[in-house]
Amino acid sequence: MPGFRDIVGQTHIKNLLMRTAREGTASHAYLLAGEEKAGKTFIARIFAQALLCERRAESGEPCGQCPSCKKVMADAHPDVRTVVHEKEGSIRVSEIIEQLVDDAYLTPYAAERKIYIVPDAHLITRDAQNKLLKTLEEPPSYVTILLLATGTDAMLPTIKSRCVPLPLRPVPTQELYAFLRKQQGASEYKASLSARFARGNTGKAIAHASDPQFETNARAAMRLIETLRNVTVPETNKQMKAISSENATERETREEVLNIIRCLLRDLMVYKATGEKEHLILEEQEEYIRDTAATSTFRGLAETAEALRTARTRIEANVSPVYALELFFVKARDCLGGNT
User: Fold this and answer.
1) How far apart are CA 264 and CA 283, in angstroms?
2) Is residue 144 a contact partner of residue 114, using CB atoms and an 8 Å limit?
3) Higher pLDDT residue, 140 or 327?
4) What mean pLDDT do residues 45-63 have?
5) 4-167 matches 212-336 in fold
6) Are 301 and 265 in contact (CB under 8 A)?
7) Which of 26, 42, 141, 300 would bridge with 340, disulfide CB 3.0–4.6 Å?
8) Which residues is 148 bridged to in the sheet?
9) 138 Cβ neighbours under 8 A, 6+ residues apart
């Protein structure tokens, strides 16, 4: 069963939480902030497991075998509650009151502590945050609240000031690579490719490494990239149709391809500014990146990146993918050919 040892990177968070579990000094609230799929929920579960473990190691590591540990990881412990919300874009006052504020004043059922995990805490409405604030200001001694957020801009300063901040940091590429090779059994090439594209995000790295289509999509995108500078309109249409279907699977493929093109544009800007390959995501495309950077301008690269963002916005607004991508490819051809 997983424990702190299985958290990839985030040493600063692991050390703090293990010490907290070991010394029994849990705070009433923590704020784990990091991008989507960075591992916030996994870390929260391990911490909850450690706090309630019946046979915790001296290091603070949960045993993973006691009934409490098993129930926490199975999301079946009566004293560990995950706050859920019906509306996709917000967590409402009624949900915070019913699942956390009112419930917090009921003593634990089986353990000495009650733990509340709040995914998507950045979606808590301002009114709901004000309700939560009262609990954070005068929490019962046995309560620990774990707020998980992709960003904290929408959160009240008074909420943030009453939480222990736990910002997740990007995991170094080599550490992700080693994890994918050892723990996920990924091939050398796939582990390298997945780690580089994940840009420090553990969840994305695992998703790429476990996706049988990822290598295929990456190679297709790279072939497409190589023709961007001199592709003709008929060729553009042909390539575009391959990634413009509304089929669910092909929509995901299109998104992956566009993400790879975004990475290319980032690499071109980095290489043009530094002339170095050390920080390239698309290492296999070094020769193309070098040649294209030499014939492109910073303005042209910036306009191409903006055209890509516009294409994605149009597609999300239900504009025909064929039309949106045609405009992007024509702009990319002009800009990457040094015409701008």
Assistant:
1) 10
2) yes
3) 140
4) 91
5) no
6) yes
7) 300
8) 32
9) none
Residue with tokens 């290598």: 215
Q: How far is CA 39 from CA 9, 119, 168, 206, 330, in A?
A: 10, 11, 8, 11, 39
Please give the structure tokens belonging to residue 104: 């917090």
Domain ranges of the chain: 4-167, 212-336
Rg (C-alpha) for the chain, rounded Å, is: 24
CA angle 282/330/275 to nearest 5° reads 35
Residue-wise pLDDT for 94-139, tens only, equals: 999 999 999 999 999 988 899 999 999 999 999 999 999 989 998 8
The alpha-helical segments, DSSP class H, found in 199-247 are: 202-210, 214-226, 233-241
What pLDDT is recorded for position 247?
A: 46
Provide the total of helices (H) and of strands (E) in the chain, helices listed first: 15, 5
Q: What are phi and psi of 326, to 5 degrees?
A: -60, -45
- Is-contact 240 325, C-beta < 8 A? yes
C-beta separation of 229 from 336 below 8 A: yes
Give tens-digit pLDDT for 264-282: 888 888 888 888 877 777 7
pLDDT at 281: 78
| Residues forming a β-bridge with 267 | none
- Which tokens hold the place of 162? 């009453």
CATH for 212-336, options being 3.40.30, 3.30.559, 1.10.3470, 1.20.272:
1.20.272
With a cut of 70, say whether residue 338 has pLDDT above it: no
Distances (CA, A) of 264 to 179, 207, 239, 290, 300: 25, 20, 17, 11, 14
d(CA 43, CA 210): 21
Q: What is the reported pTM?
A: 0.77
Give Cα 182 to chain centroid, integer Å. 21
The closest of 187, 188, 191, 150 to 167, measured between CA atoms, is 150
